[in-house]
Prior knowledge:
By secondary structure, the protein is α/β, with parallel strands linked by helices. The protein has 10 helices and 9 strands. Bound molecules: N-carbamoyl-L-aspartate.
Amino acid sequence: MRSLINILDLSVQELDELIAIANDIIANPGKYSEICRGKKLATLFFEPSTRTRLSFEAAMYELGGNVLTVAGADSSSAAKGESIADTAKTVSCYADIIAMRHPKEGAPLVAAMNASIPVINAGDGGHNHPTQTLADLLTIHREKGRLSDLTIGLCGDLKFGRTVHSLIEAMARYEGIRFVLISPDELKLPGYVRQGVLEKEGIPYAETGDLEGALPELDILYMTRVQRERFFNEEDYLRLKDSYILTPEKLAGARADLAIMHPLPRVNEISVAIDQDPRACYFKQVLNGKYMRMALILRLLEVL
Ligand code: NCD
């Protein structure tokens, strides 16, 4: 039995296999529609979510399985003071696999150590979000035809943006990857990713505050929301929230084959006028996330 807590829990070969399974699901959905019959996914979400929870649930239904859900700390025994360990042991009695989102970094790891079924980290605080990375990898692969030789711009809240941390960890393992880190000074990438991944692995990267200046060299632009819920005071959030707003005018210098990505939810970072641009990939990312979660569930349940 295995869990997915950090994207590095999956080898590059396993990532490639998940992408291949997801592409096969897209091509032949009927083949998979009953494959998880009788299996149950429990979604335990102690933080807000639309896409991640619903895409896990849609994924399980499309595999013919069932879903048990706890949405919101207020409606579960966590509100009575139950520990994550006890919740994980309890849910192991009802379900075959757990997807957990929690505001505390490391909570899904604690759940995995105590559950007798696989646990998937669906986002832990400002730390990691490996299944968003699976959605991102399938999107990059389908849009670009490769996961190597890419210049990737990451823009916005690189400090608290957990999707950015997991995406860097994943992409750093492919050949010819270069990152351009675009953020205000206060929201720069944390040291554990900069030193622990980029410098340790010798991955080329540049840091800048200038989105327009960086755009012309990018193959991928990954925009992010400023993570209001992780700020210690509202004043700082209000000062920083509109640091970057991508508009059609700003895209003037960008490549014709740029892929514009965003894990969503979007607040102000991308003007809705860009939604019509063929380079906008963020709603494709949403759909790809469902297929990758289907592939992941199949692998962790050892159905495939
Ligand atoms: C992201 C998250 O929860 O970290 N959302 C998502 O799962 N697609 C990004 C965000 O909330 O900004």
